[in-house]
């Protein structure tokens, strides 16, 4: 399975993903249950996090709001350009609210280190990060959470270029129900 799409190997199956998302949702729900204030806002980083965000919030057991930000940092390449720019901002007022920033993958840390201060200036009382994949081997920037914010991660990812479950290469592969390593022949043409 997967090789027909240029996938070198599958890292996490659809079933493994569903199980881990359920565990994350239970953990976040437990942490937010005692949080004072209005319902939390889950902010998805478009476009890569859309499937993860949808699956995650369906399993959160508390009232919540959902919004998106769009940050450009990849273009059609396989590595971040290191200078993320917010191209579409929140519509929801997050002042005085707990925010859970939902990412598909945290690798260099550039995107979250750009977004966390942005959310703080908009008045969030806490900012947590929930990333589907964490790639600490590629971390270049250390980031600090806001208030009582926590860092949640689905899986630790090897230092490979991965696609599927919302993540893409040149806008392709987002629809795969699993996460796999893209064969370098697909992008080293």
Automatic annotation (TrEMBL):
Pfam families: Pribosyltran (PF00156). GO terms for molecular function: hypoxanthine phosphoribosyltransferase activity; magnesium ion binding; nucleotide binding. InterPro entries: HGPRT, Hxn_phspho_trans, PRTase-like, PRTase_dom. Keywords: Cytoplasm, Glycosyltransferase, Magnesium, Metal-binding, Nucleotide-binding, Purine salvage, Transferase. Residues 15-169 form the Phosphoribosyltransferase domain. GO terms for cellular component: cytosol. Its main location: cytoplasm. It catalyses: IMP + diphosphate = hypoxanthine + 5-phospho-alpha-D-ribose 1-diphosphate. Its cofactor is Mg(2+). Its EC number is 2.4.2.8. Pathway: Purine metabolism; IMP biosynthesis via salvage pathway; IMP from hypoxanthine: step 1/1. One of its GO terms (biological process) is purine ribonucleoside salvage. Belongs to the purine/pyrimidine phosphoribosyltransferase family. PANTHER family: HYPOXANTHINE PHOSPHORIBOSYLTRANSFERASE, HYPOXANTHINE-GUANINE PHOSPHORIBOSYLTRANSFERASE. This is Hypoxanthine phosphoribosyltransferase. It comes from Musa troglodytarum.
């Amino acid at each position: 399975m997967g090789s027909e799409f240029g996938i070198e190997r599958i890292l996490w199956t659809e079933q493994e993903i569903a199980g881990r998302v359920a565990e994350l949702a239970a953990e976040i729900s437990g942490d937010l249950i005692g949080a004072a204030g209005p319902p939390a806002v889950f902010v998805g980083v478009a476009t890569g996090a859309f499937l993860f965000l949808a699956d995650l919030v369906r399993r959160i057991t508390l009232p919540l709001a959902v919004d998106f930000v769009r940050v450009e940092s990849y273009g059609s390449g396989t590595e971040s350009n290191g200078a993320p720019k917010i191209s579409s901002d929140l519509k929801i007022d997050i002042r005085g609210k707990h925010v859970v920033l939902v990412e598909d993958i945290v690798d260099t840390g550039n995107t979250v280190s750009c977004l966390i201060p942005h959310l703080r200036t908009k008045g969030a009382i806490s900012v947590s990060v929930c990333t589907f994949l964490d790639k600490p081997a590629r971390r270049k920037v250390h980031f600090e959470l806001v208030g009582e914010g926590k860092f949640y991660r689905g899986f630790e990812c090897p230092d490979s270029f991965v696609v599927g479950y919302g993540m893409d290469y040149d806008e392709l592969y987002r629809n795969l129900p699993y996460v796999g390593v893209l064969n370098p022949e697909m992008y080293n043409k």
